């Protein structure tokens, strides 16, 4: 079935924020998406000084299954027509999504009242101040509240849009699109890692080599001691630097990586659940089911049934 996506560009739209969903949800043989760029008027001003021509208007937004609002500046209250169509989409149970400062439009429309949401770290204080009914999450790349999703600054829109593809079509299709974009299929941690911070001490190198080494050995017992030994630092130093670089702990990063591998194995092989649990490093089927329930709200068998082609 066709899944109609309306990207609603407001005046002052940020071109990069706009490009992310239009690129990820463009028509492909392996996806059901039909994407339309929409606006209140036929031409939309951008922050880069040029104008865009939109193919659709509010009627296409009303007909969409998913409505995406890219970031825009200055953060003035959008026209009432735009707020009305966003509130209407939410009331009708359609999926409403924002990228970066697009969150402010959703908040102004009342879409985020009582929900968790995020935006670019530079503007997160303003979001919390101006919209007290919104539960602001400061240190995440994106927030998934079911049919309402928001992302942090700019490139976090890639993370969120790939997350939507993963939800709709599974990890394999999301990974294929990510490879085409030369983007990470899934990034762990939060936007706190991008907030200006003190410069690292001289001689401290990235732990990316150790993370790559670990990803090739997810079926092995990877303890904090093993990872620190590979990096050539103490466990305490490894924990501190790992958290600074990724915004999450080594063990949580490993769990997410193992779940990602399990999802891909379930989609692309006919291996038993026992073997998938072993090959992804989660050990037993019971442990695999536990983490699938906690993280994805489903079972490995149900996941395979949904996403196996």
Automatic annotation (TrEMBL):
<dbReference type="InterPro" id="IPR018060">
    <property type="entry name" value="HTH_AraC"/>
</dbReference>
<dbReference type="InterPro" id="IPR009057">
    <property type="entry name" value="Homeodomain-like_sf"/>
</dbReference>
<dbReference type="GO" id="GO:0043565">
    <property type="term" value="F:sequence-specific DNA binding"/>
</dbReference>
<feature type="domain" description="HTH araC/xylS-type">
    <location>
        <begin position="208"/>
        <end position="306"/>
    </location>
</feature>
<dbReference type="InterPro" id="IPR052158">
    <property type="entry name" value="INH-QAR"/>
</dbReference>
<dbReference type="Pfam" id="PF01965">
    <property type="entry name" value="DJ-1_PfpI"/>
</dbReference>
<keyword id="KW-0805">Transcription regulation</keyword>
<keyword id="KW-0804">Transcription</keyword>
<dbReference type="GO" id="GO:0003700">
    <property type="term" value="F:DNA-binding transcription factor activity"/>
</dbReference>
<dbReference type="InterPro" id="IPR018062">
    <property type="entry name" value="HTH_AraC-typ_CS"/>
</dbReference>
<keyword id="KW-0238">DNA-binding</keyword>
<dbReference type="Pfam" id="PF12833">
    <property type="entry name" value="HTH_18"/>
</dbReference>
<dbReference type="InterPro" id="IPR002818">
    <property type="entry name" value="DJ-1/PfpI"/>
</dbReference>
<dbReference type="InterPro" id="IPR029062">
    <property type="entry name" value="Class_I_gatase-like"/>
</dbReference>
<protein>
    <recommendedName>
        <fullName>HTH araC/xylS-type domain-containing protein</fullName>
    </recommendedName>
</protein>
